[in-house]
Amino acid sequence: MLVRRVVRVWFVMGVNGSRSIHFRRKLRWLISEEKPSLQSEKFQITPENARWSPACGVRNFDVQNEQKARAIIHLDMDCFYAAIEVRDRPSLRGKPVGVGGARERRGVLTTCNYEARKFGVRSAMPTFMALQRCPNLIVLPTRFDVYRREAAIIRGILYQFTSIIEPLSLDEAYLDVTSHPSAPAALAEEIRTAIFRTTKLTSSAGIGPNKLIAKIASEINKPNGQFEVKPEQVADFMKNLPVRKIWGIGEKSERKLEELGVKTCGELQRFSRPELVNVFGKFGLELYELCRGIDDRPVEPDRPRKSLSTEETFAVDLATLEQCEEKLEELFQDVMADLAQKESTREITKIFVKLKFNDFTRTTAERAGLAPTLEGFRSLLEEAFGRTGKPVRLIGVGVRFAEPMPESAQLDLL
Ligand code: TTP
Ligand code: MG
Ligand code: MG
Fold first, then answer.
1. How far apart are CA 358 and CA 354, in angstroms?
2. What is the pLDDT of residue 395?
3. Can you tell me the distance from the alpha carbon of 410 to that of 414, in angstroms, rounded to the nearest whole number?
4. 221: which DSSP letter?
5. How far apart are CA 164 and CA 299, in angstroms?
6. Which one of the ligands is nearest to 83 CA?
7. For the chain, which end, N or C, has fewer CB atoms within 10 Å of the first or last residue's CB respectively?
8. Would you say the CB of residue 113 lies under 6 angstroms from ligand 1?
9. CB contact at 8 A, 113 and 96
């Protein structure tokens, strides 16, 4: 009986990681106060160990597996777009290369190779700034069709090793290799070699017992390297790790923590759950676990997108609302076409308009309950533009989707 209830809740969790705390609470409720009869000698589970099971990550409902540590690989291609461009133009090998919009068109770099990074060039940097730092930088236009094709080839290679793959973007993915017979680090090496053999592109990998650790680890020996954190090494690994490495800790939270004298995860571990909730609200509960290297989010092969949008940076700033409205109409057409093609059945909860101004500040106007019509986007544009009146450098328009609720969750939990 207990096993059946627990397994059902795990399945629900496996479908949507973002509800972790809610479900954990629900699970604790099931097995502690309200349902003491569910306790059994064979399968003792307490409120303390009632975390997500490793099993949910692999959709494996075998409760005997509950204690088995997961093996997760985070794989990320090295300077992906730039590496493809250099591969396809061997004369560029060894030279600093960036990919993105031209300086004359006030472009921004999507990425650059490691030769360019030595000069301080970075992703998302305006091209003029990149050229100031690295005057010999070769700037190439993007070729998204080629990048997408390479990404599909790489995905095909990954599927030869496991079907539990959660892509994060064109060039990176989590793989749950818990059930694979090879040791995970050897497997990561094998996967990276297979990718290189086929595409002549290098990649880096992080190997760990969960997504948090695997993702952090994949940066450590980048490019063309890998790093493994074994379950027994997690405590040491976290001790000196800067808090900024934890997902969800941005610049603002980092500053907040610095004011409290906290720079590392080890230092953060001194805070109790209520103390962290005081500072960070609900996220404090997750933080309590994350800073200890605990992350039970499953690798989700079919993660639905949360939003869909399109944006454009203009060659000349738009000074008036009328000029912006003209561009808005084009962007509206684009996003609606995209929506029809990719997400025709999803429920839309919000629409939004994002503006970036000529001084690089930005603002987003969004509203729930507005249909995705040109009129709706227009009123948001007016609102966003009216906030500063500064010349506009970029307009983005988009929609946010309702989280799909799995059927099993509706039946079990509502
Ligand atoms: P990343 O994996 O973040 O970067 P990268 O692969 O270029 O470099 P690294 O070796 O550090 O992994 O992003 C993958 C691709 O996504 C990148 O090649 C270009 C694109 N991209 C953008 O278009 N804009 C961005 O701001 C970033 C960060 C990436
Ligand atoms: Mg990359
Ligand atoms: Mg990446």
1. 13
2. 97
3. 5
4. T
5. 7
6. 1
7. C
8. no
9. yes
Who contacts 318 (Cβ-Cβ below 8 Å, separation ≥6)? 324, 327, 391, 392, 395
Instruction: Answer whether 0.85 is exceeded by the pTM.
Output: no
Q: Is the CB of 78 under 6 A from ligand 1?
A: yes
Domains detected in the chain: 2-64 (no CATH), 68-229 (3.30.70.270), 236-290 (1.10.150.20), 307-411 (3.30.1490.100)
- Which residues contact residue 23 at a Cβ distance below 8 angstroms, ignoring those fewer than 6 apart? 9, 12, 13, 52, 413
- Which residue's C-alpha comes closest to atom 22 of ligand 1? 110
From the list 172, 228, 286, 300, the catalytic residue is 172
Q: Is 326 a catalytic residue?
A: no
Q: How far apart are CA 24 and CA 50, in angstroms?
A: 7
Q: Where do we find the tokens 């450590």?
A: 220
C-alpha Rg value of the chain to the nearest Å: 24
* 77 Cβ closer than 6 Å to some ligand 1 atom: yes
Query: How long a stretch of residues is the chain?
Result: 414
Distance CA 211, CA 73 (A): 8
Q: pLDDT digits over 163-218, tens only? A: 999 998 889 999 999 999 999 999 999 999 999 999 999 999 999 999 999 999 99
Interatomic CA distance for residues 368 and 270, integer angstroms:
40
**Is the pLDDT score of 43 beyond 90?**
no
Q: Which of 20, 319, 54 is nearest to 176 (CA)?
A: 54
- The answer, yes or no, to whether any atom of ligand 1 lies below 6 A from the CB of 172, is yes
